């Protein structure tokens, strides 16, 4: 879908402008992304932080069944965003920790970018563009395929035995369907993960992908719930609660720990999820209202938001670019009590705070209240 592709590019752009991802995603193919000295520094970081499990040659399976970091399949489908998220924020509940300093890891943003480019430079492939659209399939049939074809390696409940924990709710909530489907169809060359494109039909692959997605809020869940975004009168969560007392970092940012505490104490606030709508469907902080960053009718939005000192907390995943952008728009309209979640939603998940999942496996999309705004989203070019 053209519009979705445009949105992905816009999303990348929103990250890049603020952070320098452009240099990562911009070029592909044969040209090396790193200079000699940066490559040496990244290789040293790799040996220091990663070789223990992923192996000195990135071959994987040295400790904790850590996957290969040199399969062409992973580099094609995972570069740059999925690699970045896995390395920066880890896979909660697995031995893969988060390496980004903002979630307690040892690496700066620049060091993580350098690592991703270095990993890519070691494998000479062209990355594929993957859609953010949910994959529609028959969950029940997918469950049957999973049992027959996948459980032997990934475990009866996706817990991972000889292979990654693909039933891990945190991983599923923050990984796109297209990325999962790519791994299933193409396998991971040089590893035990077979290419099911040779074994299953395209529909069967859709079914098992939809089945995995349906487990994103827990393996035992019976049916995925279709979530509808909050209506205007539901924007304020805990309307009878007291306002939280946030101390903002740099005048703009609230830490995940403080936000979580406010949620647990049932404080009154508004949460705005500023990512593209499909990301909200994959997983969001309970009660958050999807206001994608390309929604530019700030005056209309502000009219729907309380102006009585209620805190408005915005988040995205970059970890802050899109939310910063919307926040600027709100403050220009005169709203004062606004804050951006410092660690972004990936940081939030990797620190162990809860997300609720709102993806349907039977319909391609929720009724999207901002459809009109999407249509008029500015072209990133
Ligand atoms: C303690 C062992 C350990 C260390 C150290 C470690 N990893 Fe991992 N890593 C894992 C495991 C285990 C997984 C698979 C987790 C799962 O089940 O999803 C993983 C997954 C990943 C993935 C996702 C791969 C995929 O197939 O989707 C990436 C990328 C990654 N690690 C990169 C790194 C990098 C880069 C470093 C060093 C900065 C590192 N890891 C350090 C154990 C480790
Ligand atoms: C023979 C064992 C085996 C079987 C059978 C198998 N897998 Fe895998 N799978 C693996 C291994 C090993 C990996 C990690 C490969 C690597 O190092 O990148 C993997 C990776 C994956 C990934 C990528 C996970 C990530 O973190 O990036 C997905 C998704 C996946 N498998 C789904 C499936 C599904 C669905 C099936 C059944 C249709 C299946 N696998 C069957 C061994 C297996």
Task: Give structural notes.
By secondary structure, the chain is mostly helical. It folds into 3 domains: 2-123, Cytochrome c-like domain (Cytochrome Bc1 Complex, Chain D, domain 2, Orthogonal Bundle); 139-225 and 359-376, Cytochrome c-like domain (Cytochrome Bc1 Complex, Chain D, domain 2); 232-350, Oxidized Rhodanese, domain 1 (3-Layer(aba) Sandwich). Helix content is 42%, strand content 5%. Strands 1, 2, 3, 4, 5 and 6 form a 6-stranded mixed β-sheet that branches. Helix 13 links the parallel strand 3 and strand 4 (289-290). Helix 5 (72-78) packs antiparallel against helix 10 (177-186) and helix 10 crosses helix 11. The two termini are 17 Å apart. The structure holds heme C (2 copies). One heme C binds next to helix 8 and helix 10. One heme C (HEC) is lined by residues 49-50, 52-54, 63-67, 69, 74, 78, 83, 86-87, 91, 94-96, 99, 115, 160, 164-165, 168, 171.
What's the CATH H-level superfamily name of the largest domain?
Answer: Cytochrome c-like domain
Helical residue percent band? 40-55%
Oligomer: single chain
User: Which geometry do the CA atoms define?
Assistant: globular
The tally of structural domains comes to 3
Number of strands: 6
Average pLDDT taken over every residue: 82
CATH structural class of the largest domain: Mainly Alpha
CATH fold-level assignment of the largest domain = Cytochrome Bc1 Complex, Chain D, domain 2
Helix and strand layout, with pairings?
Blueprint: H1 2-19, H2 22-26, H3 36-49, H4 51-54, H5 72-78, H6 81-89, H7 109-122, H8 139-154, H9 169-173, H10 177-186, H11 202-214, E1 236-237, E2 253-254, H12 256-264, E3 269-273, H13 277-282, E4 289-290, H14 298-304, E5 311-315, H15 321-332, E6 338-341, H16 344-350, H17 371-375
Parallel strand pairs: 2-6, 3-4, 3-5, 5-6
Antiparallel strand pairs: 1-3
Helix pairs in contact: 3-7, 5-10, 6-7, 8-11, 10-11
């Amino acid at each position: 879908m053209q519009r979705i592709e445009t949105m992905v590019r816009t999303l990348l752009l929103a990250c890049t402008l603020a952070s320098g991802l452009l240099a990562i995603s911009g070029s592909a193919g044969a040209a090396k992304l790193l200079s000699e000295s940066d490559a040496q520094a990244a290789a040293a970081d790799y040996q220091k932080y990663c070789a223990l499990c992923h192996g000195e040659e990135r071959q994987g399976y040295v400790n904790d069944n850590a996957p290969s970091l040199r399969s062409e399949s992973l580099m094609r489908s995972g570069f740059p965003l999925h690699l970045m998220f896995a390395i920066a924020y880890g896979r909660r509940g697995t031995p893969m920790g988060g390496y980004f300093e903002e979630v307690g890891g040892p690496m700066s943003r620049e060091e993580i970018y350098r690592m991703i480019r270095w990993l890519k430079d070691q494998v000479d492939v062209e990355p594929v563009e993957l859609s953010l659209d949910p994959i529609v399939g028959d969950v029940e049939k997918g469950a049957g395929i999973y049992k027959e074809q996948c459980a032997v390696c990934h475990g009866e409940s996706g817990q991972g035995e000889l292979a990654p924990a693909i039933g891990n709710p945190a991983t599923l909530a923050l990984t796109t369907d297209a990325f999962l489907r790519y791994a299933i169809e193409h396998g991971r060359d040089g590893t035990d993960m077979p290419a099911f494109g040779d074994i299953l039909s395209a529909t069967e692959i859709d079914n098992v992908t939809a089945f995995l997605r349906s487990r994103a809020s827990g393996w035992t869940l019976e049916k995925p719930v279709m979530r509808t975004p909050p209506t205007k009168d539901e924007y304020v969560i805990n309307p009878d609660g007291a306002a939280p007392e946030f101390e903002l970092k740099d005048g703009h940012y609230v830490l995940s720990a403080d936000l979580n505490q406010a949620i647990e104490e049932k404080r009154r606030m508004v949460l705005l999820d500023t990512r593209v709508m499909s990301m909200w469907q994959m997983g969001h902080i309970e009660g958050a209202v999807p206001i994608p960053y390309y929604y530019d009718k700030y005056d209309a939005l502000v009219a729907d938001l309380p102006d009585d000192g209620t805190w408005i907390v915005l988040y995205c995943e970059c970890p802050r670019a899109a939310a910063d952008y919307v926040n600027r728009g709100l403050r220009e309209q005169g709203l004062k009590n606004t804050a951006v979640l410092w660690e972004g939603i990936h940081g939030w998940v990797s620190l162990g705070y809860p997300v609720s999942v709102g993806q349907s496996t039977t319909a391609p999309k929720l009724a999207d209240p901002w459809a009109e705004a999407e249509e008029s989203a500015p072209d990133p070019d």
